[in-house]
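Q: Please design a sequence for this.
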């Protein structure tokens, strides 16, 4: 039976996942958390901020605010000061406090376990909901699409779209559902280590045989070096 272009891309995606799982066998989010609330708050803080910086802030934060009600009842000025180094701290404080108030009022103080319920919380979009569902509850609700995933999924020829929503839909058709959450973490780790934005290390890439951009990116870099 003749295979279609989509079949070829699905098979290539499976090979990509296999290669990356060997490269990063312990792939998971870099955010440090011990319960769903901590992951929710960490993910909100991670917007336009590095995971390293978030992990520097959260130990003291979670010790002071162990429950949703603690965040909901926090002194706004104090909380702003405690998360200031993560950037956009006023908006993040607003989202954390309002989301935790909703969790207390509508979900008995427990972070909800459905996409619709999570996205009903102030400041929580699909990306954050996917992070919490996949990372804290092990529920494959979708694929987290951040800047690394946007860059790599295009370079790997898995999508031609640029909007996170459309990219996620494209990837969900290619990636086995059980791998949805892990796939994002694999691409993020690979993007940080090898396929970075400015100087992708194609000659050292475990995906070079499955990446339509590998020769192009290597050729561009070599021509720049010659110049």
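A: Design:
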């Amino acid at each position: 039976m003749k295979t279609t272009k989509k079949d070829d891309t699905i098979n290539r995606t499976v090979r990509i996942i296999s290669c990356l799982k060997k490269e990063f066998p312990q792939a998971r989010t870099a955010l440090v958390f011990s319960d769903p609330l901590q992951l929710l708050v960490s993910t909100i803080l991670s917007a336009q901020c590095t995971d390293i910086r978030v992990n520097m802030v959260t130990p003291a934060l979670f010790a002071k605010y162990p429950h949703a009600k603690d965040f909901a009842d926090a002194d706004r000025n104090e909380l702003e000061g405690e998360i200031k180094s993560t950037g956009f701290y006023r908006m993040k404080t607003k989202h954390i406090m309002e989301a935790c108030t909703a969790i207390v009022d509508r979900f008995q103080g427990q972070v909800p376990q459905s996409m619709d319920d999570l996205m009903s919380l102030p400041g929580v979009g699909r990306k954050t909901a996917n992070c919490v569902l996949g990372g804290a509850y092990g529920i494959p609700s979708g694929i987290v699409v951040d800047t690394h995933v946007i860059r790599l999924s295009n370079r790997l020829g898995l999508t031609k779209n640029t909007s996170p929503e459309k990219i996620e839909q494209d990837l969900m058709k290619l990636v086995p559902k059980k791998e949805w959450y892990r796939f994002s973490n694999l691409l993020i780790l690979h993007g940080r280590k090898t396929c970075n934005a400015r100087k992708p290390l194609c000659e050292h890439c475990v995906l070079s045989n499955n990446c339509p951009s590998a020769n192009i990116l290597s050729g561009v870099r070599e021509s720049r070096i010659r110049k």
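Q: Thanks. Anything notable?
A: Residues 69 and 187 are 35 Å apart (CA to CA). The chain is about 60% helix and 0% strand.
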